[in-house]
Amino acid sequence: MSRDLGVVLLELFLSIGFTIVAVRLLVINGLERLAQALGWSAKTKGQILGYATSLPELVAVLATALNGRESLAGGFWNIASSNVINLVLFLAAVVFYLRHWELLNPRFIEEISFCGFSVLLPLVLAATGVSPSLVLGVALLGCFLGYQLLDHNLAELQGKRGQESDPQVLDTDEGIAGEQTSPSQGTTLVLLLVGTVALATAGYRLGNSAELLIEAIQLPAWLVGCCLGLVTSLPELTSFFELYGRSTGQGETRKLDATQANLDTLVSSNMANIGLIYPVGLAVFQVSEWLGLDALIGA
Fold this sequence. Notes:
It comes from Candidatus Synechococcus spongiarum 15L. Keywords: Membrane, Transmembrane, Transmembrane helix. Its main location: membrane. By secondary structure, the chain is mostly helical. The protein has one domain. It has 11 helices and no strands. It has helices at 5-38, 42-52, 55-65, 69-96, 109-128, 134-158, 176-216, 221-232, 234-247, 252-291, 293-298.
């Protein structure tokens, strides 16, 4: 190993701390403000948060895709394990905040069903030994698009996409009030953008330091992927506990909204992992193999 083990461990712990700070103070705060300004529903807010927290998986899968077929296997196990770990972390937050009874609410049947599908699909692929290919990538992308369409239609039928409150409207006739609203929304967008970039950077550093640490003890590809899956699930862990924590002590409606947002964070993150990020990784792997980039990078 070319780098000192102590330095790698320090980098890993610093990356973990940076990830938690980026999610709590930047991504969630920015998203909360934007959701309030635009009147987004809890479902919409949760879905966007889920896609944002999948950035570390995207970075990790792209890195493995460029390092050859054996490394790509680790990328798949990163996705598969992340989806399982995300579910476990969500349930841990549910138990910690005593919200388990809310999962029995019929309004959440749709999200729970999608969650089960997103966890079982990669496990079925692993059990059947399906080889990575562009055909598989297209099929998984089709699953993701099907999820998007079905989820959208079901949410519309159940009224889950209705606005929680009226969005803030810029009133040009109010002078000072209008001037105060515009910078606030601009600051919110900057906060969210900075948080997203910080999360992607943290995800890269997390994956890099974890992989260096794992290489030092020579683990098989599937176990490497599982370890990376645990590390890249930190944003979801932070999100689940933060959203529930912010709703504690509020009314029943807000508590249900927190469960709605957390479920959609879980589902959208998992579906993006297996139906969008992994297919992108497969495409990058195929292109790099055709161009011989994997050999250059490996060298």
